[in-house]
Amino acid sequence: MENSHLLTYLLFLPMAGSLFLLFLNKNRESLIRWTGLTVSLAAFMLSLLLFLNFNGSASGFQFIENLPWISSLNVSYHVGIDGISILMVMLTTFLTPITLFSSWGSIRKKVKEFTFFMLLLEVGMLGVFVSLDLFLFYIFWEAMLIPMYFIIGIWGGEKRIYASVKFFIYTMFGSLLMLVAIIWLGVYAARFTGVFTTNLLELYKVGPFLPFGIQAWMFLAFLLSFAIKVPLFPFHTWLPDAHVQAPTAGSVILAGVLLKMGTYGILRFCLPLFPQSALEFAPYVSVLAVVGIIYGALLAMVQKDMKKLVAYSSVSHLGFVVLGIFALTTEAVQGSVIQMVNHGLSTGALFLLVGMIYDRTHTREIAKYGGIAKIVPLYSVALMIASLSSMGLPGLNGFVGEFLILLGSFKSPVLNSWGFAVFAATGVIFAAVYLLWMYQRVVFGEVKHENLTGLKDLNKKEVLVLIPIFVFIVWIGIYPGTFLKLSEQSTNRIIQQVSVPGFEVRPVAAGK
Q1: How large a percentage of the chain has pLDDT more than 70?
Q2: Beta strand 75-81 with 62-70: parallel, antiparallel or unpaired?
Q3: Nearest in space to 319 (alpha carbons), one of 214, 208, 236, 218
Q4: Measured distance CA(197)–CA(340) in Å, rounded
Q5: In which band, very low, low, confident or very high, does the pLDDT at 4 lie, cut at 50, 70 and 90?
Q6: pLDDT tens, position by position, 92-128
Q7: In this structure, what DSSP letter does residue 226 have?
Q8: Where are the beta strands (DSSP E) in 268-358?
Q9: What is the dihedral of CA 253, 259, 261, 266, to 10 degrees?
Q10: Which of 167, 85, 98, 97 is nearest to 126 (CA)?
Q11: DSSP type of residue 255
Q12: Is the pLDDT of residue 302 over 60?
């Protein structure tokens, strides 16, 4: 096996698995479930191989494969990973088998179709993180919408159609503007290189020297698409509906991976392609991020539905990530990258736990619980660990990312104000309030409802689902260096691409 083909094997393994499922009899549910789980675990093992062979001291892209695809447009199948995308790839391949395994008890109808769409979704997510050609990136970015639309629309709650259509329309609107910007950028690149190109590495050399007015419009088109996906305030309104209506597996993947595609896009495309615009708009985007941190936390505080509370907490936590990205210091950007992983783990665990209790009681309303600590002690401990992780308790993963983001934002020369860090820090306090208050009302006190007395604690399968997530929650909290070392060189390269000392925009000469 040649290292240069590892990414291709990783991409096409779940695709082959999904196509294989089409030939299986839909009544053979056990075989279908095991096939999906085996394929996703094999993808995880391949990503581990990438992880073990990855050179963390190198700043460029590795495992690059570049093959001609559409020669007339100079579009190629161009894939590769750096220290940021390796973490996103690992997160994707780690969470996919967990969600498939966790859905064995909760997904009972159309199992074949569900497993098919989950594997197809994994292909789209992985493709987004490894693409080094903007056209290829856009194909994967849009392809990911289709399986997620069906996962919410078929296996979701009562208002699943409304939620899936809203999710689709929001994302499609932003994506179309990004497509216009991709074409515009490729056309402008032809003025420099003589040929239309969507090669990201070539466009890195062109984008910074575009006239500022044009660069700003391109930056905003890309940013809007990614801001919707994050979701950044005020583009967040699709998220609570999608989360609440999605099945548990859909919510875990949506929070764990799909939202990170937005923040990853900002890091990979918005900053290095349009550095002058990124510096110009950084304070304004950071204001939206801080508003999102506080607004999301305040909305989470008043939710009656546990799943909706966790959904709004995502708006708050992803605000931290965006703030760190636009602070443009090593600490802040590193914090944002690790916080993307942290959020996937802690919020993924919270959604799994909400789903597990919902399967037993068929309600997510906080008021319908109370006093379950004595009835389901294992569940109560697991919920506490996930909640403490989400609120950023020192010793667990959430603290590492939030601390680095606040430290980097405080000393950021781009933001040039300690106010961003101070106001963002209130989000940490609010997180403790809404998570601990929710925990208190669900777990402690007297048992108010008789139907809770017969609750069964976590079974072996559910414990097996949660243990790997908790291992990484503690690992990152105690020794984050394992993962920070991977992304350090890549984040430094992005910062250098944006804030080159003495950088000046070179206008394109007329007639060129």
Answers
A1: 96
A2: antiparallel
A3: 236
A4: 30
A5: low
A6: 999 999 998 988 877 778 888 888 999 999 999 999 9
A7: H
A8: none
A9: -170
A10: 85
A11: I
A12: yes
What is the mean pLDDT of the segment spanning 452-474? 87
- For the cut 60, the answer to whether the pLDDT of residue 2 exceeds it is no
Tokens of 296: 């999301």
Q: Which residues contact 19 (CB under 8 A, 6 or more apart)?
A: none
CA-to-CA separations, 509 to 103, 140, 181, 189, 506, in angstroms, rounded: 58, 35, 21, 13, 9
Calpha distance 445→243 (Å, rounded): 28
Q: Compute the distance between CA of residue 415 and CA of residue 290 in angstroms, rounded to an integer.
A: 12
Under 8 Å CB-to-CB from 259, ≥6 apart: which residues? 229, 230, 231, 239, 314, 318, 343
The residue among 295, 282, 373, 356 whose CA lies nearest residue 323 is 282
Residue 185's pLDDT band, with cuts at 50, 70 and 90, is: confident
Do 405 and 324 contact (CB within 8 A), yes or no? yes
Q: Is the peptide bond before 283 cis (omega within 30 degrees of 0)?
A: no
Q: Taking a C-beta distance cutoff of 8 angstroms, is the pair 322, 330 a contact?
A: no
Rounded to 5 degrees, what are φ and ψ at 445?
A: 85, -165
Nearest to 492 by CA among 480, 484, 503: 484
What would the mean pLDDT of 476-505 be, rounded to a whole number? 77
Looking up tokens 């779940």, which residue turns up?
A: 14
Residue 432: other Cβ atoms inside 10 A: 17
> Phi and psi for 75 in degrees, rounded to 5?
-100, 135
173 CB-near residues (< 8 Å, 6+ apart): 228
Q: Are 290 and 415 in contact (CB under 8 A)?
A: no
Please report the pLDDT score of residue 512 as a whole number: 35
Task: Give the residue among 501, 508, 85, 493 at the shortest CA–CA distance from 271.
Answer: 493
pLDDT for the residue numbered 290: 92
**Nearest by Cα to 179 from 144, 131, 214, 141:** 141
Reported pTM:
0.87
Backbone angles phi, psi at 79, to 5 degrees: -125, 155
Would you state the pLDDT for residue 3? 61
* pLDDT at residue 468 is higher than 90: yes
What contacts 24+ positions apart, CB below 8 Å, involve 147-153?
147/117, 147/118, 147/120, 147/121, 148/121, 148/250, 148/253, 148/254, 148/258, 150/113, 150/117, 151/114, 151/117, 151/118, 151/121, 151/246, 151/247, 151/249, 151/250, 152/242, 152/245, 152/246, 152/247, 152/250
Q: What are 438-459's pLDDT values in tens digits?
A: 898 888 877 777 777 778 888 8
Locate 20 and state its tokens.
């294989």
Cα dihedral 337, 339, 345, 348 in deg (nearest 10): -110
Q: Band of the pLDDT at 507, cuts 50, 70, 90?
A: very low
User: Using alpha carbons only, how large is the chain's radius of gyration in Å?
Assistant: 22
The lowest-confidence range among 27-41, 75-89, 467-481, 486-500 is: 486-500
